[in-house]
Amino acid sequence: MKVTTSAILLTWAIRTVAFSPATPQRRTSALYMAGVLGKVTGRSALDPAVIAKYRDLPFPADKVLAEYVWVDADGKTRSKTRTLPAAKASSIETLPKWNFDGSSTGQAPGDDSEVILRPCRIFKDPFRPRSDDLYNVLVMCDTYTPAGEPLPTNQRAVAEKIFEGKEDEEIWFGMEQEFTLFNLDERTPLGWPEGGMPSRPQGPYYCSVGPENSFGRDVTDAHYKACLYAGIDISGTNGEVMPGQQEYQVGPCVGIDAGDQLMMSRYILQRVCEDFQVYCTLFPKPIVDGDWNGAGMHTNVSTKKMREESGLEVIKKAIYKLGAKHAEHIAVYGEGNELRLTGKYETASIDKFSFGVANRGASIRIGRDTWAEGKGYFEDRRPSSNCDPYIVTSKIMSTIMGPEAPEIAPLNKQEA
């Protein structure tokens, strides 16, 4: 079959249009309006020149925009914006409480729907930068009834009580948040053929480079920079084992701040994906057919005593305690985790607790450096990518501060 140069160029144009910038075009109003609500992966139907006209308007010198963010009944983030005098947005103590319609988020009945938002943590807003000396802000909130009772979905309030009074432990958490990027059809991961599977098995995609291996780098880089701007302690990012799967790390963070930072980083991730017009899921096993890794939120843990001399013995005792309460932890470590924790694809079985040195097939992993130095941290590999970070961090804290537990032999027999 004879292929012309024109045909080749046309094919290339079709392949590249999804992630090319939208070029302003002269079109009739009816045709333009018909395209505004279209869904094209990687490309907003809105004209960037029109968006820029409003984005570039200056903010009032004495006011800031505060985006109040909270966790809904499904563990996802929601938000709404208010205007505040600049002085009120300078600290948690001066930020006012607010409210929302809880009947629309599954958090209150329709006949008594008001839910109170209590500000807990301030971040700079990377989506509304300013050119003056002020910052618009993102405000992480938790949720209460008008009578002042924490909502049943307010896991932050529960975690705060568990961490309270244990500041001397100086517990650090480092969380590895994995996620999967899809086209807007919500069925096709980035880099996958529509309705099919990649031609190569997983392997070349982890920490990869090249257009045939890496999918979504612009999204992860934008998220990275937005988190840094916001003041989140994001410490790294990398492409993951399954094509379209990504990871970033937050921490080390101390105590309750780990949950605040991780939850706000998820909010920022969804906002970035909104801008790029890609769908992001935190479900731990978005592709169940074929040999593909799931997604988790591996949680690295270290107390002050674990970081001191002979800290390895403290780490081992903490691991024994976690093993004794394995079922309790699995029950709160995320939805759909049974699809991921199968004993395959760098996971341990959901039914059996284990630990090992540098063993990614164990429930708990001790790093080689920690083992060699006799101090450091351990990694709990069980939490799913959609877990609640407030629940996970506080549950770990509660367990390792609890009573002693029987010794457990490591998977690595040579390390016993």
Fold and architecture overview:
The chain is of the alpha+beta class and 416 residues long. The chain is 28% helix and 21% strand. It has helices spanning 5-16, 29-36, 48-55, 155-163, 217-230, 257-276, 304-307, 311-324, 326-331, 337-340, 368-373, 389-400, and strands spanning 63-71, 77-85, 98-101, 114-124, 137-144, 172-182, 234-239, 245-254, 279-281, 297-302, 355-357, 364-366, 378-380. The strands form two sheets. Strands 6, 7, 8, 9, 10, 11, 12 and 13 form an eight-stranded mixed β-sheet that branches. Strands 2-1-5-4-3 form a five-stranded mixed β-sheet. β7 and β8 form a beta hairpin. It starts with a helix and ends in a 16-residue tail after the last helix. 38% of the residues are buried.
Brief synopsis:
With 416 residues, this protein is an alpha+beta fold. The chain is built from twelve helices and 13 strands.
SSE topology string = HHHEEEEEHEHEEHEEHHHHEEHEH
N→C terminal distance:
66 Å
SS elements, strand count = 13
> From the helix content, strand content and strand pairing, which structural class follows?
alpha+beta
| Poorly predicted sequence stretches spanning 5 or more consecutive residues | 1-34
Rounded to an integer in angstroms, the radius of gyration calculated over CA atoms is: 24 Å
Summarize the biggest pleated sheet: 8 strands, mixed
- Large-scale geometry: globular
Strand content: 15-25%
Q: Which whole number gives the mean pLDDT?
A: 91
SS summary, helix count = 12
Helix percentage:
25-40%
Write the layout of secondary structure elements.
Elements: H1 5-16, H2 29-36, H3 48-55, E1 63-71, E2 77-85, E3 98-101, E4 114-124, E5 137-144, H4 155-163, E6 172-182, H5 217-230, E7 234-239, E8 245-254, H6 257-276, E9 279-281, E10 297-302, H7 304-307, H8 311-324, H9 326-331, H10 337-340, E11 355-357, E12 364-366, H11 368-373, E13 378-380, H12 389-400
Parallel strand pairs: 1-5, 11-12
Antiparallel strand pairs: 1-2, 3-4, 4-5, 6-8, 6-9, 6-10, 7-8, 10-13, 12-13
Helix pairs in contact: 4-12, 5-6, 6-12
